[in-house]
Amino acid sequence: MEEKRTRYPSFDLLKYQDEWDPHTREIVLKRLGPFDQPKVLKDVEVNLIKTIASHLVYDDRHDLLDYMVHHMDQKLTAKMGESQRKPTIPPEKQLIQEGLTAINNYAKGSYHQSFTELTTDQQFSILSSLQEGQIKPLPGWDKEKQQALFKKLSSEIISAYFSHPIVWSEIGYGGPAYPRGYVRVEQGLTDPWEARQDEK
Description:
Blueprint: H1 22-30, H2 43-56, H3 62-77, H4 92-111, H5 120-132, H6 143-161, H7 165-171
């Protein structure tokens, strides 16, 4: 894939990091890595998440995939609640780790290779079936659980991807509003430091 895909080639959000308060700056810059070894995720799970993530966001850049794995691992080690969860769906740590194992076992049973060794078309086929809850057989994983797994993986992966400052620059997002704030909020207007599509 190309290194940078953007309509804002000269916009670099990080040039404006001094405008953020210290706490915000620390949080954002930590997303650039380097990251500690995962506390919960095993190597096989890390590779599965990276492969799945590269398909869900159509991006295989290592620094971004590393951050998505880090985000997932942090989420699974946090002691925060899950908001709402159906009683028939297991806790997210169990859902993700057992789900990844089930996907890998299905790949081995159907194609005699692990999920990460399959062709892109085969991987897409499995993910598409998972989204629809139509992988058969997947012992212990009915339609509801399959769809819950796909939804959980996709929401965490996409959330992490679009919280990375490199991606912020590429989509023209101006970054945290505090304490500087956005002033020109009328339709079609931008503040002087915001990205513009006509930048070269």
